[in-house]
Write a structure and sequence with these properties.
Shape: globular
Order of helices and strands: EHHEEHEEHEHEE
CATH superfamily: Nucleotide cyclase, GGDEF domain
Protein name: DUF2652 domain-containing protein
CATH class: Alpha Beta
Organism: Chryseobacterium pennipullorum
Pfam families: DUF2652
Low-confidence stretches: none
Largest sheet: 8 strands, mixed
Strand content: 25-35%
CATH architecture: 2-Layer Sandwich
Amino acid sequence: MKTNIQEGIILIPDFSGFTEFVFSTKLYTGEYIVRQLLSTLIDVNDQYFKISEIEGDAILFYRYDKKPSYQNISAMLLKMRSAFNKKIDELTKSLGTAIDLSLKFIVHYGTFSQYKIGNFRKLYGKTIVEAHQLLKNGFAEHPSYALFSNSFLESTRKREVHPKNEQLYLPEVGVIHYFENMNQPVF
């Protein structure tokens, strides 16, 4: 049996406030808003990451990469968040309704495999499970953040200097950066 095991980055953008949003928004309106927001994240990605799955309010992105760049990923997250917030503003104005959603990101690194079932490609491995577990953390103090796991930071540390303004260092998990304090990239 041939397996496709490689090292890579797992990126999961996830909406904070999604459950409350679903329960407080009409079905058609909510589906339209979520579709627009997910499409925005996919468009901004510009095929840098491949999509494994879209589930509700989250996208499971991945990229095989033996030398990931902290700077490139940070810039991508800021770009995604900016586009997401801009789309929320546009939708709020055009629909005349408040949209109380924010964006959080999980950035993880490790070894995983991929298999195919019919027309679907699925990722498999401990790294995938760990990334999903990081989504359900109780560490974040604010809803809009990026959690860079220790494994991702270690994969980039030898080549890049990380910012010193790390907001919340969690020795067992990684670092949480709150978007309000991250430097804005120049595009």
